[in-house]
From TrEMBL:
Listed GO MF terms: cinnamyl-alcohol dehydrogenase activity; zinc ion binding
Domain of life the protein comes from: Eukaryota
Pathway(s) annotated for this protein in UniProt: Aromatic compound metabolism; phenylpropanoid biosynthesis
EC number of this enzyme: 1.1.1.195
InterPro entries for the chain: ADH-like_N, ADH_Zn_CS, CAD-like, GroES-like_sf
Alphabetized SUPFAM superfamilies for the sequence: GroES-like (SSF50129)
Protein name: cinnamyl-alcohol dehydrogenase
């Protein structure tokens, strides 16, 4: 399976609440409705704090918290009509897990 572009983030590795740098590969864009973005800014909300400390009981470490982002679209699938490369986007995304 092809490997995606390298990325870096700050990851929680256990319930301590401490974040440390991590490197990971992003998923390769593969679906017609995929939108790939470069994250420029990311906020942490209280949900992230619950996840970091496994307060919901389902955290799968390591976890890179932060799902409220502002970014720029870098690639879109063939079926995407609402966005194009270069668009600035903001919104809620799923957590990244490694
Ligand atoms: Zn949130």
């Amino acid at each position: 399976m092809a490997e995606g572009k390298g990325a870096h983030g700050w990851a929680a590795r256990d319930v301590s609440g401490h974040l440390s740098p991590c490197h990971f590969s992003r998923r390769v864009q593969r679906d017609d409705d995929d939108v790939t973005i470069k994250v420029l800014f990311c906020g942490l909300c209280h949900t992230n704090l619950h996840v970091i400390k496994n307060e919901f009981g389902n955290t799968m470490y390591l976890v890179v918290p932060g799902h409220e982002v502002i970014g720029v679209v870098t690639d879109v699938g063939r079926g995407v009509t609402k966005f194009k490369a270069g668009d600035t986007v903001r919104g809620l995304l799923c957590r990244l897990r490694g």
